[in-house]
Amino acid sequence: MASPKGATIKIRRVLPALAWAGLALACSAWFAADVVRFGWSDTWREGAFLLGLVWVTWLLWGAPVLVLTSRGIHVRNAWWIHDVEWGALVRTKRRFGLVLVTTARECAVSAAPARSGIAVTLGPRSTTPDVSVSMEGTRRLSLSAHDAGIVLERYRESAGTEAGSAVRRRLNPVTIVLTFVTAAWVLAAIV
Questions:
Q1: What per-residue confidence (pLDDT) applies to 119?
Q2: CA–CA distance from 21 to each of 14, 33, 45, 148, 160 (Å)?
Q3: Are 63 and 13 in contact (CB under 8 A)?
Q4: Pick from 79, 154, 149, 81: which is nearest to 112 by CA?
Q5: pLDDT at 4
Q6: DSSP H helices in 11-144
Q7: pTM, two decimal places
Q8: SS3 of 91, please?
Q9: pLDDT, tens digit, for every residue of 112-151?
Q10: Is pLDDT of 178 > 90?
Q11: Cα gap 162→142, rounded to integer Å
Q12: Residue 6 region, left (φ>0) first, then alpha (ψ -120 to 50), else beta?
C-alpha cells in the first residue's frame, strides 16, 4: 500500500532484525571462506546447514513489519502479508501481542510482540510517540504490542475512516522462495 500523502510509519523490532542481518552476513562470510579454502566440492553440504539457520532466523526476526499509511495498514509476517484498509479495522487486541480485529478476520502482528516478563520487571516503560497523518516522511519505530496499538489507534483517528473496507491476504513471496531454496539445498545435502 503506497501512501499518496502524509506520514508513513514502519514498526518492527530493530535489534532482532539487526541480529538476523548480522547472522546472515556471518554465515555468508564463513561459507565463502570455506569454499575458498577447501573448494566447493568439499563444503557445499555445510552451506545447507547455514542456509537453514538463516532461513529460520528470517522467519522469526527478519520478516515481520507493520506499516501505517494514510490508506491503511500493511502487515508482513513470516508467512502471510495482510493489507487492511482503515474502514475494515474494528479494534485491536494488545494483551499477548498486537492483533488487528477486522471485518474479515483477526491478523496477528509479529512485528509488535508483547513485552516479556523480564522486560516488564526490569526495563523502563517506553513512552508512546505522537503520530498523525499530517506528519511528513517516514518514521521507523520499535515498539511493544501495547505501544504499537496506541500508535495505530492515534494514527487511525488522524487518518479518518472514510477509506475503503477491504482486507487482503496473500503469501509472503520472499519466505516462499527462501523455503524452496533451503529445502532443495538441504535435500541435496542429505541425499
A1: 52
A2: 11, 18, 22, 23, 37
A3: no
A4: 149
A5: 44
A6: 14-38, 40-57, 117-122
A7: 0.78
A8: strand
A9: 887 765 555 555 555 666 665 566 788 888 888 888 888 8
A10: no
A11: 28
A12: left
Amino acid residing at 189: A
Q: How many H-runs (helices) and E-runs (strands) does the chain carry?
A: 5, 9
* pLDDT confidence of residue 100: 93
102, 85 contact by CB (below 8 A): no
- Angle CA(2)–CA(24)–CA(119) in degrees, nearest 5? 75
Q: Reduce the DSSP state of residue 13 to 3 states and report it.
A: coil
* 32 half-sphere exposure, CB direction, 13 A CA radius: 6
- Ordered DSSP codes for 87-107: GGEEEEE-SSSEEEEESS-EE
Residue that has been written with the C-alpha cell 496473500 in this structure: 170
Bridge partner list, 171: 80
